[in-house]
Amino acid sequence: MNSTNITLSCKDFGHFDVVVVGGGCTGVFAAVRAARKGLKVAIVEKSNCFGGVATNGLVNIWHSLYDIYNKEQIIGGLTQELAETLINRGYGNLEGTVSRYISFDPNALKMILDELVINSGIKVFFHTFYHSLVTREGGIEAVIVANKDGLGRIGADFFIDATGDGDLCRDCGLESYVDSAIQPPSPCCFLDKNIRSDLGELIRLHGAEFGLEDDWGWGGTIPGLEDINFRADFHIFGKMCNHADQLTEAEIEGRKKIYALGELLKKYDDPGHAIVALSSHIGIRETVHYKTRFQATELELLTGKSYEDTVMRGTYRVDIHHQNDNGITFKYLSGKQVTYYGKGNQTVTRNWMEDMGITCTPAPYYQVPFRILVQEKIRNLIPVGRMLNADRGSFGALRVMVNLNQLGEAAGTAAYCCLDEGKPIQDICGKRVQKELQ
Ligand SMILES: Cc1cc2nc3c(=O)[nH]c(=O)nc-3n(C[C@H](O)[C@H](O)[C@H](O)COP(=O)(O)OP(=O)(O)OC[C@H]3O[C@@H](n4cnc5c(N)ncnc54)[C@H](O)[C@@H]3O)c2cc1C
Questions:
Q1: Confidence band (pLDDT; 50, 70, 90) for 1?
Q2: Cα–Cα separations (whole angstroms), residue 202 to 218, 265, 329
Q3: Residues forming beta bridges with residue 365, ordered by sequence position
Q4: Does ligand 1 come within 6 angstroms of the Cβ of 24?
């Protein structure tokens, strides 16, 4: 069947002002912002809930809303609103001493996101997979989706691609690029019982018996779930997760590693250990990026360059999981740089500011301008999420949720500005978007 036949055989799933494809936090925040501006909004999500990596991926940390000196609050909006809801209802904790981050229960976040979306009057399509699109004269007319009712057509005046991989951008033929060392994915789980011994030591001693290498990883607590820990202990190397076969292989390999971890812990730490939840989707850090009017770069980011149309502020460090040597490098706004190999068996510390001969006072936070959301080809499309236009270092910092949440809100607001002014995204003034956000 060719694409014309597919379009003809589609059911009509409605027409909206804005359709957001992808219901991770980025997509939800975009949809809610547009809906709160009075627009008729639909959101399409292939799984059974909102939140993406934060819920289906079990990743339960939102980083600091403050500058590096913990003085000025630099992030507000829906991130603050949801963080407060999580904390007030007992499903979120403020943690850390120097930089205060929020840990939360991903299952509670699922329900809180349902409430947020429904209360905003947004039409929800769960279990609905974006399939293809219908374009006309430099714009998108509709997306074709597949769900239990068959193939359907959802029309809209504006579209936001929040699929992470940029599925709509791909089908529009937007210019893309892949970093030569993409950050590898990690399978995640909830583990019953705290680990009594040093996990790195256990893996170095017994990992080979279970096919496990000493890899860098991390874990954390979950508010309200005593004795249960989040774990992201391994990477799956050499897989590009925006390709179906490699994504499938990564999922299978990831689950195998988690199972092996459980077996190792039962045998050598405590027989009472159990894997109590597996992420329902492998944690994908990076695939492809799409070109937009502005590319974020590490040096501008870390030196806190400011822009007149800033729509995002953040402090989360540059965080690069190495592609193939079990290491991770962090670069902080303060100048500090640390690389860890394996679970703490080797650490290399430097100062990137000194290395580069930079002597200025560290920037309190970094900024990103509206132009990062503006692609040049399609008049009614915004790409937003981890497909963003960023070099390796800046991507390492920008990819976290408190940052993408803000860009999601900017995307929803920009969609409103386009429809309000009757202009293509390329003609929208970033300062107006910034003002609307404030
Ligand atoms: C292991 C791991 C640990 C991390 N740790 C942290 C951390 O501690 N804190 C932090 O802030 N960030 C962390 N990150 C980074 C952060 O979670 C992600 O970069 C961010 O969530 C990406 O957001 P997104 O909205 O672009 O993608 P996602 O959250 O993946 O959302 C994309 C959504 O689109 C849906 N979708 C995709 N394709 C389609 C389609 N064709 N049709 C319909 N729906 C579709 C998906 O189901 C998903 O819900 C981590 C990432 C990983 C992988």
A1: very low
A2: 15, 8, 23
A3: none
A4: yes
Structural domains in the chain?
A: 3-179+369-437 (3.50.50.60), 189-278 (no CATH), 297-366 (no CATH)
List pLDDT tens digits, range 16-35: 999 999 999 999 999 999 99
Mean pLDDT value of segment 60-80:
95
Token pair for residue 63?
């980083």
Of 29, 53, 281, the residue with max ligand 1 atoms within 8 A of its CB, to mutate for a pocket test, comes to 53
Q: Could you report the per-residue pLDDT of 345-364, keeping only the tens digit for each?
A: 789 999 999 999 999 899 99
Contact 407 CB / ligand 1 (< 6 Å) = no
Crossing angle between the packed helical segments 77-88 and 106-119, to the nearest 10 degrees: 120
**What angle, 0 to 180 degrees and rounded to 10, lies between the N-to-C axes of helices 25-36 and 77-88?**
110
Distance from residue 52's CA to the centre of ligand 1 (Å): 5
Q: Is the CB of 411 under 6 A from ligand 1?
A: no
